Amino acid sequence: MRWTGDDAFSTVAACPVNRGFMRLSTYFLPLLRENPAEAQIVSHRLMLRAGMIRQSSAGIYSWLPLGLRVLRNIETIVRAEQDAAGAQELLMPTVQPAELWRESGRYDDYGEEMLRIRDRHERDMLYGPTNEELITDIFRQNIKSYRDLPKNLYHIQWKFRDEVRPRFGVMRGREFLMKDAYSFDLDLAAARKTYNKMFLAYLRTFARMGLKTVPMRAHTGPIGGDLSHEFIVLADTGESQVYCDKAWLESDVLSTEVDYDDDLEPFFRQWTSLYAATDEKHDAANCPVPPDRLLSARGIEVGQVFFLGNKYTKAMNVSVAGPNGEPVVPEMGCYGIGVSRLVGAIIEASHDDAGIVWPASVAPFGAGLINLRAGDAACTEACEALYTTLNKAGVDTLYDDRAESAGAKFAAMDLIGLPWQIVVGPRGLQKGVVEVKDRKTGQREEMTAEAALNRIKAAR
RNA sequence: CGGGGCGUAGCUCAGCCUGGUAGAGCGCCAGCUUUGGGAGCUGGAAGUCGGAGGUUCGAAUCCUCUCGCCCCGACCA
After folding, report:
1. Which CATH superfamily is domain A31-355 in?
2. In terms of CATH, what superfamily is A367-459?
3. A49/B38 CA-to-C1' distance in Å
4. What is the pTM of this model?
5. Are A53 and A63 in contact (CB under 8 A)?
6. Strand B: which nucleotides have any atom within 7 A of a protein Cβ?
7. For residue A442, which nucleotide's C1' is closest to its Cα?
8. What's the CA A109/C1' B7 distance, rounded, in angstroms?
């Protein structure tokens, strides 16, 4: 499969949840004018103000329609890139039996972060914080031969980790949506190839969401294994301090022609050769990058890839028949993306004083249509016509048909951050024009309705 | 889990020190006037003051317990 970078958005448009359009007068979009007291960081404040989420209890949120659309768009990109990299989607349950975790030894090791549940038959269950045990169990029950390798399986499922101190809204919740993939390979060389594929998929995934992401060599932590990279989104308000070569800012993985079936080792080496280190690993005295090329930035971790080796396959007695009939213990890898965290991370990376600035690929709607004079026949007629045309053209449009004042509508539209705003008012209509505003640059331009449509279609 | 803070209307908050029976702005509802960057006027609805117990003639206010939430730190997709 060949990825050249621009086929991305058709997939997003095809996501069924995000088909269609909406009138703001009927949409469930509870906007807040003021900052809720409980929200300190900007993404949390904006998600609450823009009516994307509401808190249920500490670190647990309901996703309202606007927020859910973004979440689904992110999922769609993640899914497309996982599929392209050769991973196959399945869906495992949220509630798991304790016995599998006793087998791996993690039932006792995982500690207080694991939400333990007892069912009516007094069986020990748990709400899954991750799925290595469950996927390994599925694998060993169903894969018996080396001929069936490699396998790379993923799902996008809610996880629960009973964090001592949840914070930052969805960036550090207790319940969160995660894409987790698990690979099984026959030997180290094959596992390394899979690792590289996922490494590429991750860079592409985050790039498609408009994020500058830097992979950094990471500790493997309690998950275990030998090789690991974290993917850090650069955002001024990020929670951790990172240092990297300024060349990262010019890097563009989407314009790099890479085939997943190629030998990805040169690609991997290229993308890990540039300096990048988290605060605890960075040593200013011995930094290989000269000061003028060193970027000191803030970052948010949105994904991590691990080579696990045979830690789980060994502990859980997994083997397949090898070419000579002898048992072979598969090599595993696991690969996580914080899907719900990405919603917050994208906002941290892309907002201004007025509100969110969505990258087009994840925006809940492609455009917002503002009727400045909802009671005026000419305005309403023009808006209705444009609304229909936009939607027929495949531009998901949120139509603000409310009887609010102009300023209130502008502020609301800026807050929710749709990439394009089309403003229809009596003044412009007299001249036969509407106003098109680019949310990101703030540039406003008058043009005919038809030109506005073409402008927005062209920008996708 | 250590340290700190906060729970009063949908949101932001005042009132608590010094006890006397519930307030403001925004939002919401109705009407009128407005209408190109969070409009104006008039009228209206809305809170068991987080919960329980205690002190008192009387508790949002004082005391005890409890629940929840937030922030800093240690820890994490």
Report:
1. Bira Bifunctional Protein; Domain 2 (3.30.930.10)
2. Anticodon-binding domain (3.40.50.800)
3. 13
4. 0.94
5. yes
6. 1-2, 6, 11-13, 25-27, 34-39, 68-77
7. B37
8. 36
